[in-house]
Amino acid sequence: MVLQKLSQLSLKLAFFGLVFLFLGMMKWERLLAKGRFGDSPLKINTNAGRSEFEIDYDRIIFSAPFRNLQDKTQVFPLPDQAFVHTRLTHSLEVSSVGRSLGKGAGEILINKFPNLQSLGIDSSDIGAIVAAAALTHDIGNPPFGHAGEEAISDFFRLHPDGKCWERHVRIDQWADLINFEGNAQGFRMLVSKESGLKLTYATLAAFTKYPRPSLITQRDIARKSQKKYGFFINQLVDFEQMTDVLGIEKLSSDSWVRHPLAFLVEAADDICYSIIDLEDGCTMGLVDFEETVDLLKPILGDLFDPEKLKDRSINQNLGALRALAIGKLIQETVEVFAQYEENMRKGTFDKALTDMIPSAKALGEISRVSIQKIYRSKVVLEKEAAGFQVLEGLLTVFSRALYHHFYQPEAFSGQDKSILRLLPEDFPMKGWGAEVNPYPLLRALVDFVAGMTDKYALNLYRRVNGISIPGF
């Protein structure tokens, strides 16, 4: 048995060795291409004073999906007194850290590859790509955060009004529905013709941390980029268009190598939620200030000066410690990026950068305490429990009405008719029937629910269930 397992392991290692042998090394000249969806890759920027990647940032800032993040919680429900982060403030902070990471990495790349300057690329461009991609990293998150993702998945996987659709769609489409993924929803939103964003291929690739669909032949658990998936199956053509333009290599028949800048976007998020969720936990009284300081000390090292904490408020001290810690983590991450940059382009490096930095152990301890005292706190668990109820309730009434309308007309009721009138005006209500695959219809339903803010989802849930009635 042992020999058999060793033989299987050897074959697997040999297979991946062959994969990497035939992988070409990706080139920065293509990885930083300025083309965008909807335009020719060679189209020249006519917007004086702004690079293509700065235009990406501006388009995202002014988009409706980004504005909606202001009413989506990061970890805590929004309290009346203490300030805690929303998805919007979190995204802005991740983008700020991402810009610093990108510019730092960009300076290294420009020095290493001087020909990039002849193509009109400088370190600020690379900072702008990472900043724009980081700005969108949570744009596909449904109401109530990760609990919302699980609620949507559980509805199709377990609820009778969700499971009834399984026999009408393909197996790869069903895999999308029973494993809802905010990253894939984000990619869908960013390439959607309705959104009109038309971002550059480089920004989209930096956004895509998980360059694979939901259903693949074999997942390599050692590769961080295969932990989740990054696009729904009906966005495969869009994804392949992006990888073709940028020269992103395939890892297997159904998976790709990460764009190197995606590692920086991931690191920006890791840095922010580690440090800032801890800050929020301290602000909410879930973690003692003294314990918070002890958790940050190993990161700060010689930068920590207890004398500077005297005669200032806790919030002032938290702000100062947070700034110092993030600055140190940015420096360490850029250094590790420089160390592994070539391996990223070869496809042989696939780990989180923050797992490789000197402060990795300290971040791991912060994560342990955060799970215990913050993410599993009563106030967070109550929010998650409410999210499950709200999203399941909304999906139930809309899914049932749609199923009755198209597949069981004899069961279509007056209540169903009223429910369907609550769908958006542009909801695709024509062309469906017993012989038509309803996957695009279900994607549109998930788009509708996932795009809601927490408050809108809660209010609509109350109305459709008769808990509250307008005018009463």
TrEMBL record:
Q: Which domain of life is it from?
A: Bacteria
Keywords from the named record: Hydrolase, Membrane, Transmembrane, Transmembrane helix
What stretches pass through the bilayer? 6-26
In the UniProt record, does the keyword RNA-binding occur?
A: no
> Is Hydrolase a UniProt keyword of this protein?
yes
Q: Name one Pfam family in it.
A: HD_assoc
Q: Which residues form the HD/PDEase domain?
A: 83-283
What name goes with this protein?
Deoxyguanosinetriphosphate triphosphohydrolase
UniProt organism field = Algoriphagus taiwanensis
